[in-house]
Amino acid sequence: MRCPLINELPPPPYGKTGWPWTISSTHILPQQPGGRPWPRLSIVTPSFNQQPFIEETIRSVLLQGYPDLEYIIIDGGSTDGSIQIIKKYARWLHYWVTDADNGQSNAINKGFNKATGSLYGYINSDDLYEQDALANIASQFRENISLDLVAGICTVFDEGGVKRLFEPSWPDDISSFVRTTFSSTFGQPASFWTADLYRKIGGFDESLSHCFDRDFFLKAGLSGVIPLMIPVRIARFREHPLSKSFKNVIEFHKESILLLSKHGPACGLSSMEIKEYGQIMRNEVAYEQIFSIWRDKGRSRAMLSFLRMILESPQLLLQRKILGQMRRLLFFSSRDVAELS
User: Fold this and answer.
1) pLDDT value of residue 187
2) Count of alpha carbons within 13 Å of 308, Cβ hemisphere only?
């Protein structure tokens, strides 16, 4: 599908201006220099109850000015008004569905099962692409026909504006993907890969709900892929209180332990190293769980958990953040705990 012109789309909500509301990307010709058609780009958006953000995401995809776009939305059965927004744009979607799924990784795989493009990417329904992102990405694959994976700059922002630029890089040591939690070296929204690579890896691991993208990129590296990192702004990652990165920190740590066990040997880590890194991650889980227990069950239960953690790993008392946690448990009010961790 040719990307629609801005005047072909529904008007933006009142007061919304700029990209991607009243500004669009440059429309590029159907043929590349030399006369060949541009590769078909298949984009999947998994979504569940993201009504405040999803329209901005959709418009940032549809207004790319790209000549062969295949946009797929997999909604998990939203009840917040998201479906009404999706229906507004349904005529420009290759496929969409709203139905219960088995999590985000399952939804993304369901989307790519409907895809026919040669290049893939997925954008969550609270993130968005920059202007001309797809043209910039497709140009890299055109100029480097052996490429399997490309990633650009990802802008991290919140309601207050831009917080930082996530400059992409690829680790010299592939084990960095499993040695720490939250160890991605580039922003997932700003990454694209070939359909062949997706099929070679077997898609996203549906047993994972938080670290499936890191697992995917790690397996790409282990398969011999050498990606291209480009200094171009491609996507924006939105930080907000309901995002997984904020709400489910403990689950990220737990799945990082699974990745370490699963891929550590293939990454060249010894059994001793796997054990040591695993203990560090388990300590992170214990640290975060204490704040969670305080929020849910009160200070006394949190103090008991803290003492249990110290009895099991007394060396943690040498860490500044553990001493800080103890001070908060002793002196902070329960009213402040929601801001902690």
Assistant:
1) 93
2) 10
Which pLDDT tens digit goes with each residue over 122-146? 999 999 999 999 999 999 999 888 9
Q: Is the pLDDT of residue 112 over 90?
A: yes
Could you tell me if residue 34 is left (phi over 0), alpha (psi between -120 and 50 degrees) or otherwise beta? left
φ/ψ of residue 336, rounded to 5? -90, -10
Cβ 107 vs Cβ 46: under 8 Å: yes
According to CATH, the superfamily of the domain at 6-241 is Spore Coat Polysaccharide Biosynthesis Protein SpsA; Chain A (3.90.550.10)
Residues above pLDDT 90, as percent of the chain: 70
CA angle 124, 126, 130 (to 5 degrees): 80
Distance CA(237)–CA(289), nearest Å, equals: 26
**Statement: the pTM of the whole predicted model exceeds 0.85:** yes
Distance CA 125, CA 238 (A): 10
